[in-house]
Amino acid sequence: MPEKDTQKYRQRLWKIFLSTLYLSAFTFGGGYVIVTLMKKKFVDEYHWIGEDEMLDLVAIAQSSPGAIAVNGAIVVGYKLAGIPGTLVAILGTILPPFAIISVISICYNAFRSNFFVAQMLSGMQAGVGAVIASVTYDMGAPIVKEKDPMSLVIMLGAFLAACILEINVIYIVIVCGLLGVARTLLAKRRAGK
What we know:
Elements: H1 3-25, H2 31-45, H3 51-63, H4 68-106, H5 108-112, H6 115-146, H7 149-163, H8 169-192
Membrane topology: Multi-pass membrane protein
Protein name: Chromate transporter
Pfam families: Chromate_transp
């Protein structure tokens, strides 16, 4: 690899690390929130990943076992810079919660009974709900704009299965994945005729 390309690659790795570190350090509310912020950073700001591809990466991250924030960092890091990108993204994602949880666990008894901490956490919960609603809108809007009836039916069916029927999300993701495969195979078969 030429020296100029090596330098760009190192800069990209450093940017991935700092971005995931920053996002992880200032994100409260779980993996779905950090995935949204990753989308804003890597799709909207840096333009390193396309929006459709980000949706695919989120689907992969969600359908894999483990924390969605780490899974999201893995797939985004790998997409952007291979194995080294994966490693720096994981490191950037796990360092802030590791440090914060370590401090909190040491001071747990003091935090548990502190009125101000309890009120702050209550306020954060409301903010997290708004961020998750924003994520849902941002990820669902392109599907609705496509006006593809099958995509709309799959999205609505997945929503009803999760929210009304309370079916485990893993089963919903698997079924949606199988529907996507079947749909692609049918389209290829029709195109071949």
